[in-house]
Specification:
Distance between the termini: 45 Å
Number of strands: 26
Number of domains: 2
CATH architecture of the largest domain: 3 Solenoid
Strand order of the largest sheet: 5-8-11-14-17-20-25-26-22-23
Structural class: alpha/beta
Helix content: 10-25%
Number of helices: 5
Length: 276
């Protein structure tokens, strides 16, 4: 049987009543093999096909099984005892691929993939099922949520939140494609897709509930930022309008997207000195 079929069989057993107390060494062995495949980049929670990004349901099922079929245990990290169903990810392989993570606060959970020539600055957190591509910078105070897919050569500015979408299993997670630069304090949530080589201004919220005013194609879209856009937050008039509790009109957040200019790209290039 393949790893996928093993995980799907275990998922059916879990749906039929299998619990952590009933899980055997064979069951846990399947889950360990699955986590190793995630960490090696052999399987991913979502992949891009001819019609866009789609979730790999069985991979998300495997992640959920690690919570449903494992007992919480006392574990130690950095001299501190914590309680969780999984230990943190081993990081010895990162140095072999030119990737570095700084101490005292860079946390990579088991089942997360981190590519080559990447940098993770503390404090930062990369959750189970996340995929961080080659040459990507995860800056201080960043969170990469469960199953989030971060491409190659991405820059996540400090204090950036990349949300995770673990359930429902059929929904694709947050996607940040190759070459994207997110300014400090950005938040990307609820399965939003940031198109490749886009540059997003500081403190911008990208979520399917906020409209994207794409000035390139002159249309309003939701749930994605097209490739090669420069995006920033603006406020537009809300349908709430006047209300007795406040003077004047009401406004709601929106995002404006324009073409990326060469000067903008030059300003977001990563410093080569960081890689030497």
């Amino acid at each position: 049987m393949s790893l996928q079929s093993d995980v799907e069989d275990l998922w059916r057993r879990k749906q039929d009543g299998l619990t952590a107390a009933d899980a055997t060494d064979d069951h846990l062995g399947t889950l360990d093999e699955f986590l190793a495949a995630l960490e090696a980049g052999e399987v991913r929670a979502a992949e891009k096909g001819s019609e866009g990004w789609e979730a790999n349901e069985w991979v998300k099922q495997g992640i959920l099984l690690n919570f449903g079929l494992r007992e919480t245990e006392a574990r130690t990290y950095g001299g501190v005892t914590y309680h969780d169903v999984l230990p943190l990810r081993e990081t010895a392989d990162l140095n072999e691929r030119g990737t570095r993570n700084t101490p005292d606060g860079t946390v990579i959970r088991r089942g997360a993939y981190v590519g080559s020539d990447a940098i993770l600055m503390s404090p930062a957190f990369v959750n189970i099922g996340a995929h961080v591509g080659d040459g990507t910078l995860v800056d201080s105070c960043d969170t990469v949520g469960s199953c989030a897919q971060i491409g190659d050569g991405v820059k996540l500015g400090a204090n950036t939140l990349i949300g995770g979408v673990l359930e429902p299993v059929e929904d694709a997670p947050v996607i940040v494609e190759d070459g994207v630069s997110l300014g400090a304090g950005c938040r990307v949530t609820s399965g939003f897709v940031v198109g490749e080589n886009s540059v997003v201004g500081e403190n911008t919220l990208l979520t399917p509930r906020i409209p994207i005013y794409d000035l390139v194609e002159e249309e309003v879209i939701y749930g994605e930022l097209p490739p090669e856009r420069r995006a920033f937050t603006r406020f537009v008039e809300s349908s709430v309008s006047d209300h007795e509790l406040f003077d004047g009109g009401a406004y709601k957040p929106a995002v404006v997207a324009t073409d990326v200019e060469e000067q903008t790209l030059e300003a977001t290039e990563r410093e080569d000195a960081l890689r030497e």
